Amino acid sequence: MTNPDIRRKRLRQWIDAKHGGNISAFAESIGRKQPQISDVLSGTKSFGEKLARRIEDRAQMPKRYLDGPDVYDQLTALYHGIQLTRSGALLGAEWEKLPIDKRAEFENKIHAEVAKHIREQRRGPDDEPPPPAKPQ
């Protein structure tokens, strides 16, 4: 089977599972017209990489889902029983190799950056930062 054939098969499975086989409902859900999707499924219209990624994005499919389970499974991995991207699982494994004091140091930096981001979001771009707190 070629990539376009695999994509057609996977797209048909998705439409059957998520939209009861209704091509029109699926097409509407991703902002396309039914004939466009029918042409892709029938092979009248090509089903290349760019279109596959666009459909996956609009249908909120997992990344590279349409390329088949082999490709999709290669991009994900379990880390302590949680499905992550392969790079996320590798990052978690490397994290665990760090000494506890380094992990704490990095966690404090991350918490500070997240808190800063939240303050900036609440404040808005035109607001002045609050004055520094006076020591008591």
Describe the protein.
With 136 residues, this protein is mostly helical. The chain has two domains: 3-74, 434 Repressor (Amino-terminal Domain), CATH 1.10.260; 84-123, no CATH class. Helices cover 62% and strands 6% of the residues. The protein has seven helices and two strands, in the order H-H-H-H-H-E-E-H-H. It has helices spanning 3-19, 23-29, 34-42, 49-58, 69-74, 86-97, 100-123, and strands spanning 76-79, 82-85. It has a two-stranded antiparallel sheet. Helix 2 crosses helix 3. The mean pLDDT is 84.
Strand and helix layout:
Blueprint: H1 3-19, H2 23-29, H3 34-42, H4 49-58, H5 69-74, E1 76-79, E2 82-85, H6 86-97, H7 100-123
Antiparallel strand pairs: 1-2
Helix pairs in contact: 2-3
List keywords for this structure.
single chain; 136 residues; 434 Repressor (Amino-terminal Domain); mainly alpha; 2 domains
Sheet of most strands: 2 strands, antiparallel
Strand content: 5-15%
Task: Please tell me the overall pLDDT.
Answer: 84
Q: Briefly, what CATH class of the largest domain? A: Mainly Alpha
Number of strands: 2
The unreliable regions are none
Q: Based on CA inertia axes, which overall geometry fits?
A: elongated
- Count of all domains: 2
Instruction: Please state the CA-atom Rg, rounded to the nearest Å.
Output: 23 Å
Can you give the helix content as a percent range?
A: 55-70%
Give the ordered list of helices and strands. Answer: HHHHHEEHH
* Assigned CATH architecture of the largest domain: Orthogonal Bundle
CATH topology of the largest domain: 434 Repressor (Amino-terminal Domain)
Count of individual helical segments: 7
| Distance between the first and last residues' Cα | 73 Å
Structural class, from secondary structure content?
mainly alpha
What is the strand arrangement across the widest sheet?
1-2
